[in-house]
Amino acid sequence: MSRSTIGLVTEGGTDYDLLCALLGKWFGPEVMFICLQPADSSTENGSGWKGVRRWCQQTIGEYGSLRDYCDAIEPRLDGIVLQVDGDVVFEQDVELDAAFEGETRERRLVSVGGSKYDRFPLEAKGRALHALVSDWLSGKDAGLLALCVPIDELETWIVAAYDSQTYHRPPDYPIEALVLPADSVIGHAAEYHGIRVHRRDGRLKKNRSVFRNFHSQVTTEWKTVASVCSMASVFEDEVMKALGK
Amino acid sequence: MNIQRIHIEYFKSHLKTDFEPGNVNVFVGANGSGKTSLLEAIGLLSAVFNGRVDAQSLRDRGVRLGIPAIYKTALKSQDKISNMIHLELDWEHEKSAWEYTVSLNNPIDKPDPFWSYYTESLRLKDRSEPVFSYAPRTGMKYKDYSMQPDISALSVAAGDAELPTLGASRRIFGDYAIFTPSSSVLQGMQSDQMQKNPIGLSGGRLTESVEELLKKESGKFGDIDIADLNDLIDWADGVSTGFPSKEILSPDIPAPKRIIRFTDRYMSAKRNTISAYDASEGALYVLFILSLIMHDDAPLVCSVDNFDQGLNPRLVRRLTSLVCELAIARGKTMFLTSHNPLVLDGLDIRNDRIRLFAVDRKPDGSSIISRVRVGEMVDLTKDSLSRLWLSGRLGGMPSL
Description:
The structure holds two protein chains of two kinds.
Chain A: E1 5-9, H1 13-27, E2 32-37, H2 48-63, H3 66-72, E3 79-83, H4 98-104, E4 109-112, E5 115-118, H5 122-136, E6 145-148, H6 155-163, H7 181-186, E7 191-192, E8 195-196, E9 199-200, E10 203-204, H8 208-211, H9 215-220, H10 222-228, H11 230-243
Chain B: E1 2-11, E2 14-19, E3 24-29, H1 35-50, H2 55-60, H3 68-71, E4 84-93, E5 96-105, E6 116-124, E7 132-134, E8 141-142, E9 145-146, H4 153-157, H5 164-174, E10 178-179, H6 183-186, H7 206-213, E11 214-215, E12 220-221, E13 224-225, H8 226-232, E14 236-242, E15 259-264, E16 273-275, H9 281-294, E17 301-304, H10 313-329, E18 333-338, H11 341-345, E19 354-361, E20 367-372, H12 385-390
Parallel strand pairs in B: 3-18, 3-19, 10-17, 17-18
Antiparallel strand pairs in B: 1-2, 1-4, 4-5, 5-6, 6-7, 8-9, 11-12, 12-13, 14-15, 15-16, 19-20
Helix pairs in contact in B: 1-5, 7-9, 9-10
């Protein structure tokens, strides 16, 4: 790989770590990662999808394009990976393209085997998410950008890596459509596949030190993850296209 | 014990300093602005609570030992140098609200080993009659007890069975100390000259404190999950304690009886254990701060001078935020000084229990303390506290 430095814009720390593990597996140890976001949780909207949106708007506002931004900072960036969880489309203050609004705005939940799935038009949501992030960047990604937009949360990829063979899921409701997989699956019990997890106020605590333990399974089982989760496959394609070997 | 107001007069650069602390109080300011001397003034007041003010009682609280001429304010602009150091403390404990004032003296020309009390008064806010009020104190009595010149009336009254909350307040505030950890002590390579239970003022007994807090069966380190601790020390997969062994500690360095061990997550399985001696200073510092907050025997009121030392800015921001959460949950009062802007970003100053103060010197050289509040000048939706501080908009910044 000729490129050596990749900047990551993610919703949170565990997302950053998982993507670094994947990119490290694909590109080898010579690649260096820089966490561009979340960088500062001290102000309002510091992390989460709002932090990602703010980063996009500020960067384009200040530098004009991602290309100019990548060239301006030190070390110079060879590309950017940007992650937003797909559940952002349910946020009321997210402006979806009118073409996708009706298809994606509301959750249409079904319960299968004790788990909740979002019965959504998957392809439409994928397109809506790409359009949304492109809008945040004013359409100026200049081919340097690989988007990672899992249908609900990035944790569905962890569930896919561990449970794709055993999880009860009719074909209509793939794992990547699981609603809140962190809470409903990974944090459902005290341990997830032998790894101790913690909850707080009824929700899974996303300890980076705990989530690191899931990485090797995701990287090892990546082919399975990509086959089960369409957006994982799209992400891999985008990474290879934008940052390619 | 909720400390509601501290007033200091004629102590070092604090000609007249008055402030209202919360649970977590962070002081920022230029070097030499009066941050450490503020912590020391609180240490002096704590020694008063304990009874006697002498070299030992000040040293036990981490106050730098000096002579009266150093302690008493002597600014060029003063018409007359005061003989007295005047201190006041308002606090509330178990629904009793107290007001205490004291004036201390020690001759500059011929210092005594013990500071003497000149005036002293204590009152419960909801009563018209004071518990005692002596001005001057000489020849006065508290009930049947004749005042001695070098024992505080407060410490005497604290033994009064009719004032149980005063006794408890005395124990809590009398236990105050200023902690200034040192790397070599944290590493266990040097003994702590400022010993205290459960953890010394320079960081001695860190191993023992960590051992007492670490409950692997329940996955807890004190009040937090071990996973939370591992998140802070991100190069390590775990922390444990044990005997020193030649596999991880050179025979050429003095080995303590017990050591802290870290598992380095990047190293191969049989060579991934390192001792505190080889660990990053920041990791030891994290353990120190968390032990100081979460150990049941640690002081409920204490200071940490240069809170940020040895810590990466992002780590210190995270640690500050955790310190606030834990200190409030435990009802602690902490006074922290810092020079790291990212400490400020760990403070949610919209929470009234978390307070930020800028310390500056006035033109006459005396220190002035200003509380930073959210408002027109401090709009956290637009700027972080760190940026505001660095831009000079909060005060506490030298004009370099």
